[in-house]
Model the fold of this input.
Amino acid sequence: MTVPASMIHIVTDGAGGPEVMRPVSGRVPEPAPDEVLIRVQAAGVNRPDVAQRQGSYPPPPNASPILGLEVAGEVVAAGREVQALHIGERVCALTNGGGYAEYCVAPAAQCLPWPPGYDAIRAAALPETYFTVWANVFMLGRLGRGETLLVHGGSSGIGVTAIQLADAFGATVYATVGSEAKAEACRRLGAAAAINYRSADFAEEIRRLTDGRGVDVVLDMVGAPYFLRNLRALAIDGRLVQIAFLHGAKLAEPFDLAPVMTRRLTITGSTMRPRSTEQKGAIAAALRDQVWPVLAHGRCGPVIHRVFPLAEVAAAHALMESSHHIGKIMLHVAD
Ligand SMILES: NC(=O)c1ccc[n+]([C@@H]2O[C@H](COP(=O)([O-])OP(=O)(O)OC[C@H]3O[C@@H](n4cnc5c(N)ncnc54)[C@H](OP(=O)(O)O)[C@@H]3O)[C@@H](O)[C@H]2O)c1
Done:
């Protein structure tokens, strides 16, 4: 296939609301020696894209300034060091940016095959949440079979994946949500209980649901207002994994360190984007071995809330900021 010299991609005219994004024509990127060039058919919208557009999450050095952290499509060119992937192969990829475009480069190590029966939209909905949940809940949080997990934002793209994967790997999952419709969706996906954080104190509810024991792992994206309650919700030897600070990172009240020692708690966290290709490649290898077979059996899979054409990316971001969605918001780029 001939690769054109130019492509449509989304630019942001400075930091601001969804209206700062617009499609323009630009140059097709060239793959580095360890990268492939993908003809993008679909791309995922993720909350970190919203933060980047607003100016609070700048791309790391050397990453594309174009938004978009996950795509699915066809490999149309490969750098000279790439051996495992071939022209014409269908892949989904965790990108280092640049996904809101007709063509996008990604390290070959960050590409995975489409699970059987998947189309481009479903395949593009996998990388960002599966890499993040695997790295944080299973690698850092060490969630094991028979353990318990509390996921905040259970209906988010991340939350849906965390519920499904933890359930598939034999853990009991609890989620927090902001509405009854979202609670129902989380229960259908495998959560043992969903707690409406607007009407209940989740730490008290977790203690009640676990007969006073607490959960083994908490996956948190809310931040400071939940920190002390997250510690209260943890069992002895519990692990708190922090992946975002939607409501701030600085505690307003003093923090008593004693429970960290007396209850042997672990407080950890990570952010995916600045990690090295080697680290992301190791996560991709673990996903391929342990999670792709589960996807192939249909025991978990993406929940697609809505698909927008690439040119309507502003509406996709507005929907994400409204938090009315359950699961993933996607962009259709090409057939
Ligand atoms: N560290 C990493 O590597 C990494 C990677 C990817 C994403 N993330 C982060 O993970 C989070 C989710 O990303 P996403 O793309 O899945 O976003 P998303 O679908 O927009 O989800 C955001 C969620 O936050 C929930 N929420 C807001 N306030 C809440 C509160 N007080 N208590 C409980 N839940 C609350 C919302 O649910 P309600 O409507 O029910 O309130 C919504 O479901 C984002 O903060 C993102 O930045 C981190």
Observations:
- Residues 46-48, 128, 132, 152-153, 155-159, 176-178, 182, 197, 221-222, 243-244, 246-247, 270-272, 320, 323 surround NAP (CB under 6 Å).
- Residues 277-296 form the longest helix (20 residues).
